[in-house]
Design a protein that fits this description.
The protein is α/β, with parallel strands linked by helices. The protein has twelve helices and twelve strands. It has two domains: 240 residues, 3-Layer(aba) Sandwich (Rossmann fold), CATH 3.40.50; 151 residues, 3-Layer(aba) Sandwich (Rossmann fold). α2 packs across α3 and α4 packs across α12. The longest helix is centred in the middle third of the chain and has 22 residues. It starts with a helix and ends with a strand. It comes from Kocuria gwangalliensis.
Length: 404
């Protein structure tokens, strides 16, 4: 990136930044998961609430958790991330309290909001364990807190904002660069000089959600902020590898789709792609879970079991890159994002590795919108810019921020 490009990126990033605030606490927010066999079905009921799915069908999904003792690894991973992030903030002299809340299992959002109010924490910053724009990965977290505040009668008492999607943070992407380089080296040791394939994978979502991601006022590749951000992140990772990508092709694929088969979801599916790779002379595949921040159940089952088995059936070598987890670069990037929102003297500048600028701190009101079945209006949502206010949509040919 040239100095001029960096100045342009900085300008758009600044236009999308919210004013720093002295937040009283930061809440690490995640999906949640069961802690034992007796928790599995109640947890899945929480995940699928409002859809009328019977327990017999939930038990089909429960087998993934049953095989792991009924315990999702995501909770332990979030505890580890919370501890690592807290230690990094303390090392920097940032003393803001760091709490943890989940969407679908204890500690629940409403309980943590109540705790914050009881402890006198009125200004709250949410850090989600999702790096990309999308309904489930961003807006739903903002809805979780909007609904929690309304149900508790605290909407006028607590102020809640959210850390922006951080898909373009160098610290988030760096672990994948290192991991992919190692995976390609391991594959070459196993298959020699044969052709290799890199599959960047993320959670599939309904086509309607993919196309609703981002704001209607901004144009995105493939008409989707969700897809465009994953492609941008994947290209950046590939670009860092240089000669290590010789005789290697790559593509973005999807995993973990669910729901009625008649509803279109993002494709292609990772296992379907792996089955076709031998036809192109591919002898080894490296899988990069670019859409995930930790090795939770869907990564372990869909990749380490199903995708790995698909590669074995296809007769090709398989390597899977680890997620960012508690990699020091990733923890440092999250600490940077928190410092930027706090406005500390040591806060680094907002830098996008692979975008025109960093994403919005407070998302546009039309961003990743979704009307769920049975609803007549959107849910209460925190951290958004009203529709009647212009937003920074990009840069013009003169390097000036464009608003719409």
């Amino acid at each position: 990136m040239t100095p001029t490009d960096q100045q342009t990126t900085n300008a758009l990033s600044a236009a999308r930044a919210a004013e720093p605030r002295p937040f009283d606490a930061v809440i690490l927010s995640s999906f949640g998961g069961p802690e034992g066999q007796e928790d599995v079905i109640p947890f899945l009921r929480n995940v699928t609430r409002g859809r009328g799915i019977p327990d017999e069908r939930l038990e089909e999904v429960a087998t993934h958790y049953r095989a792991n003792g009924g315990v999702s690894p995501i909770n332990a991973q979030n505890r580890a991330l919370r501890d690592a992030l807290e230690a990094e903030l303390r090392r920097r002299g940032v003393e803001v309290p760091l709490l943890w809340a989940n969407r679908n299992w204890a500690p629940y959002v409403a309980d943590v909001l109540t705790e914050c109010n009881d402890r006198g924490y009125k200004d709250l910053l949410i850090l989600a364990t999702s790096a990309f724009s999308g309904y489930s990965s961003c807006r739903q977290y903002r809805e979780d807190y909007g609904m929690g505040l309304e149900e508790l009668g605290l909407a006028d008492t607590l102020h809640v904002e959210k850390v922006r999607p951080y898909f373009d943070e160098i610290g988030f992407l760096t672990p994948s660069v290192q991991g992919l380089r190692d995976a390609l080296a391991a594959l070459r040791e196993r298959v020699g000089e044969g052709a290799l394939e890199v599959l960047f994978t993320t959670h599939s979502v309904p086509d309607t959600d993919a196309h609703a991601s981002g704001s209607e006022r901004i144009e995105f590749e493939e008409n989707s902020a969700y897809v465009a951000q994953h492609l941008a992140a994947s290209r950046w990772i590939v670009a860092q590898l240089g000669d290590a990508m010789d005789n290697v092709n790559w593509q973005l694929v999807y995993q973990s789709r669910s729901g009625p088969p008649q509803i279109p979801w993002l494709e292609p599916d990772i296992c379907d792609v792996i089955e076709t790779l031998p036809e192109s002379g591919v002898r080894g595949v490296a899988v990069v879970p670019v859409g995930f921040v930790s090795d939770h159940m869907e990564v372990m089952w869909d990749l380490d079991t199903e995708a790995k088995d698909a590669a074995a059936e296809a007769g090709i070598a398989f390597e899977r890159v680890a997620t960012a987890g508690t990699h020091p670069a990733f923890v440092g990037a999250l600490a940077d994002a928190i410092e930027q929102r706090l406005g500390t003297e040591t806060a680094p500048p907002r830098v996008s590795a692979c975008g025109e600028g960093t994403w919005f701190d407070n998302c546009p009101a039309d961003c990743c919108k979704k009307i769920l079945r049975g609803q007549s209006a959107p849910r209460p949502t925190v951290a958004q810019t009203p529709l009647d206010q212009p937003i920074a949509v990009g840069m013009d040919d003169q390097g000036e921020v464009m608003y719409r």
